[in-house]
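Morning F.,

Quick status update on the modeling queue. The single chain you submitted on Monday has been processed. Sequence for confirmation:
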Amino acid sequence: MLDKNTNTANLFNGNDPKAWLTQHGINEVECLVPDMNGVLRGKALPTAKFLKALEDRALYLPSSAFLVSIDGRYSGSIDEGFAYSDPDMRMVPDVSTLCLAPGAGAGKA
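Structure tokens below.
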């Protein structure tokens, strides 16, 4: 929900993300999702790679990104008796959340 201080010009609300990214001079898109502790995890992609991820409806992140505990250790690590594996996890970008990255400066969404 938007509050009265939200600048809606910074939010994507159309059907053409490529045009919006071009209009705002975006050259890098941060793709973020919170882990179980509320810490944002993800990756920054050049705009062309982000648009390809939208087209493919797939963005891959290592599953271990969500296994980092709040103190920086991995849960389920070898010292806890679990075999280590790190398969990629497929995520689907949600363009309704596309906006200029707050505090990141020009060229970032």
